[in-house]
Amino acid sequence: PSITKAIKKLEEQMDIILFVREKKGMILTDNGKTVLAFMQSNDVILVGKDIGEQTQVKGIYLVLNSLIRRELVCIDQPIQQKFTTNKGLETMKEYKTYRLTEKGRQFKIN
Question: Do the Cβ atoms of 71 and 96 come closer than 8 Å?
């Protein structure tokens, strides 16, 4: 119950729905379906920010974390990529990467 309240509070604060609650359990939200479908069509290791940019999903890391909890996606090895600061300086930055699990590959999106 306290986890459910914490999730609902987070959803309200971020103005995003992480889970659709039904009597039979939780199902994927439209954002979860969008991200999972994108990952299924690009079955490679992906950087979280790139997934967000490509899918235009608000709160991408919250969505990815909800897919991780459902064991549809997992975190992979971080990678280093060039990053340009707002001052125009290039630097290397470490980014988390994500990939589908076997369950995520086989998950049928309605």
Answer: no
Separation between Cα atoms, residue 4 and residue 99, nearest integer Å: 26
- Total Cβ atoms within 10 A of residue 97: 18
In the beta sheet, which residues pair with residue 83?
A: 91
pTM for the predicted model, two decimal places = 0.73
CA nearest neighbour of 97 among 49, 33, 42: 49
3-class DSSP state of 86: coil
Which residues lie closer than 8 Å to 87 by C-beta, 6 or more apart?
A: none
Residues recorded for the chain: 110
CA angle 80, 83, 86 (to 5 degrees): 155
- The pLDDT tens digits of the residues spanning 54-102 come to 999 988 998 998 899 889 999 999 999 888 889 999 999 999 999 999 9
Secondary structure (DSSP) of 4-48: HHHHHHHHHHHT---EEEETTEEEE-HHHHHHHHHHHHT-S-EEH
